[in-house]
Amino acid sequence: MKLLILDAGHCLSLAMAREANRRTDVELVIEPGLSLSAERLDALRPDALLIPPLSRPITDAPAAVTAHAEAVEACLTACREREVPMVWCVSDQLYEDGLEEPIDEHVVPAPRDEGLRRLVATGERIRAELPRHLIVRLGPLFALEGTHAWLGELLDTLVGGNELRAEDDVIFCPTSADSVAMALIGMLQQQGCGADAWGSYHLAGTEPVSAYTFVSMVRTQLATRLEGRGETLALGGVKALSHHHDQPLRRVLNCRRVLDVFGVHQKPWRLEVGRMLDVWCLARGDDARPVEETRET
């Protein structure tokens, strides 16, 4: 299976590259930006095109959101002309006001924000114009590297001794970029084998949590690991913010359909964060080792 993904520096593109590199049944081509022509599709002949999400469209500049939507629609036109399936990943922030109950796929986002409405309109075009599509709505992505790599940003801030601020009244399901990459490849392989299960799917981690609790847990786990390594760092603190005084805003995606159709189980975000922190600490030790050896010499 040959896959093409755009936006080379995105944390999801990097996660897809890691997953493809450890397999023998996937060839991954990565384009540097979001622009793609029908001629480029002709040259590459992928089995599917994947587009990573804007992870924080609510806070992104309106011009950036519009540019992303226009780029996705240009890709839609190219895929329609060449009959190439398209996978568009979208942030759960499109559900601007959330819902009390877990949000099913049939609930079409109806945001008030103009930029979010622009992204919803793009999704409607995809559904109307390209039968073979997957619109995959994701929880807040986290990874160690790449753009939109939330966890990497948190670690840099904490290690730098700077304060983190996070809402204690916004509830969501943090989602590992690595687990999304694994799931997307599995879903597309089943589609290639005749599953014919196109449409919208929710893909997020298990265990709803507030942004403040997630960030606090990352800080606690980081401190524990650094202490175990004999390192003493004055990590930055975490401050709780409250914007929804009446009741918490719940933006929790119901991921039952992706399990029923493709057998994709959601990975617990605590396990994924722990694994990534172990990787981060190991890389930190590897970076330090040559310096120590030089001093001994």
From TrEMBL:
Residues 63-278 form the RmlD-like substrate binding domain. InterPro entries: NAD(P)-bd_dom_sf, RmlD-like-bd. It comes from the Bacteria. Coiled coil: none annotated. This is dTDP-4-dehydrorhamnose reductase. It comes from Halomonas salina.
